[in-house]
Write a structure and sequence with these properties.
With 487 residues, this protein is of the alpha/beta class. The protein is built from 15 helices and 22 strands.
Length: 487
């Protein structure tokens, strides 16, 4: 590598791996560019099988000591990491906006504070983690959560640090050690997290960061015999490959995958609220797995809903995400832009109508788009676009609404907008989704289970569910008092 550092808006970022408490270079690099303007940010260490294996070895070596660390000390270190995140919040926000193009104002006010909260929440949850003992014919059952071992965590590019710490924080709290593989399109804040964790006193080898292309190092990480857990957020095809790789050793998996979530608007809904929620789906240029990209609107109010939607969408400002006035930034990468435009152009060729947008803008920006006249079995309705592209379909009654909502291979989330509590209860009971929001969107409590149904994922994380995954649960059954007399 020509230099092991890059500077982003005055912030120095080490572009090497973090393995066993040390910075490690690779013979090769890959180029990281900013989606804002296509400028080169830096040359990043391109991991090989050797670095991947070294990271797992470091995690394995560090595991006994970290697993034996008392809960209170593990929690203290996690709180210290949160302190470090808060101290460097502005630096993290600026670097991540440059690296992945999401709004700087969102990183400052919501995303990076949530990163710190992830560590604090799981530190505190660890200290409260307990299960009431219960009796079986006079014998006492005691449930405990034992650290499982080294974990491989593979994270996406759309909210790099927040989504990484949704995994890193509970894994570390559980007493596991971690090999974090960030997405190659947005690797920088994972490197900064390694610095923050080291400064907080996390022992060497407990957190390792390996950068590079998943196709080059992923199989080593996911098939390694010393890896005890794998958590992945990303696409269904990649998840299939990871699952096949892990299958030989029956390594437990947590998979949070794609979505094609519905947003149902009933005639009794507050239409202004419904429109606000629908336009909110363009957040992060539509690069949100939970986004309600399929607008399903009761036919009696569809025309008025569409009129209000078009009016509100026209007021969105798209541009440089560092500008406080910007509402929508760029797409992450030229390849993603091509993918988005391909979906839209094929839909238009098949008869869809672009009520809003439907075209590229300069650079890596795609106009917020709403397509109507789309068939339920069409590609644009069935496949995840992962861009600022929504479709609108109408329904006549609850049965049709539910049928359309459940009519894909996904089941990550759903949003229901209605003024009738009884209807909300009926409809949500019939929806296939890991999370359902009623008259709101993107309210996420870490105490709640999070994950998807069908091909949107396997397993649940959050609160105790995270510890259930990152730990080996043990039930110890003890005979009644006096058992020693019968030894």
């Amino acid at each position: 590598m020509s230099t092991p550092f890059t500077t982003v808006a005055g912030v120095t970022v080490d572009t090497r791996h973090w393995i066993g408490g040390e910075r490690v270079a690779s013979a090769g690099t890959f180029t990281d560019t900013s989606p804002i303007d296509g400028a080169v940010i830096g040359e990043i260490a391109r991991g090989t099988e050797a670095e991947a294996a070294a990271a797992v070895a470091a995690a394995k070596a560090a595991f006994p000591g970290w697993a034996a660390t008392p809960r209170a000390e593990r929690a203290r270190v996690l709180h210290a990491i949160a302190d470090g995140v808060e101290k460097r919040l502005e630096e993290l926000a600026v670097v991540e906006t440059t690296d992945n193009g999401a709004l700087l104002r969102s990183h400052r006010r919501g995303v990076m504070p949530r990163v710190a909260h992830n560590f604090r929440f799981f530190a505190d949850w660890l200290l409260s983690l307990d299960h009431e003992d219960f009796e079986t014919r006079g014998h006492t059952n005691h449930v405990s959560w034992d650290p499982a071992g080294p974990c491989v965590l593979i994270t996406p590019w759309n909210a790099p640090l927040m989504l990484a710490t949704w995994k890193v924080a509970p894994a570390l709290a559980a007493g596991d050690t971690v090999v974090l593989k960030p997405a190659e399109w947005s690797p920088l804040t994972a490197s900064l997290l390694a610095d923050i964790a080291a400064e907080a006193g996390l022992p060497a080898g407990v957190l390792n960061v390996v950068q590079g292309y998943g196709s080059e190092i992923g199989d080593v990480l996911t098939s390694h015999p010393d890896v005890r857990r794998i958590s992945f957020t990303g696409s269904v095809p990649t998840a299939r490959r990871i699952a096949a790789s892990a299958a030989a050793r029956l390594t437990p998996l947590s998979l949070e995958l794609g979505g094609k979530s519905p947003l149902l608007v009933f005639a009794d809904a507050d239409l202004d609220l419904a429109v606000d929620l629908a336009v909110e789906q363009y957040d992060n240029a539509g690069q949100v797995c939970l986004a309600g990209t399929r607008l399903l609107v009761e036919e009696t109010v569809a025309a008025e809903f569409t009129r209000r939607f078009v009016d509100k969408a026209a007021r969105l400002r798209q541009g440089d995400p560092r500008d406080e006035a910007t509402d929508i930034g760029p797409t992450i990468h030229p390849r993603q832009l091509e993918k988005i435009d391909g979906f839209v152009q094929r839909a238009l060729a098949a008869g869809a109508r672009a009520v809003v947008g439907g075209h590229r803008r300069d650079g890596q920006y795609y106009a917020p788009t709403l397509l109507t006249d789309v068939a339920q079995d069409s590609e644009i309705v069935q496949e995840e676009v992962f861009g600022p592209v929504l479709t609108l379909q109408t329904f006549a009654d609850e049965d049709e609404a539910v049928r359309l909502a459940n009519g894909t291979r996904f089941g990550l989330a759903a949003t229901v907008v209605t003024g009738d509590p009884a209807r909300a209860e009926r409809v949500t009971a019939r929806l296939v989704a890991g999370t359902v929001w009623v008259n709101c969107f993107f309210v996420r409590d870490l105490k709640a289970p999070f994950g998807g149904s069908r091909q949107s994922g396997v397993g649940r994380e959050g609160g105790t569910w995270s510890f259930d995954f990152y730990c080996d649960l043990k039930n110890t059954v003890t005979a009644p008092k006096g058992w020693q007399d019968h030894g």
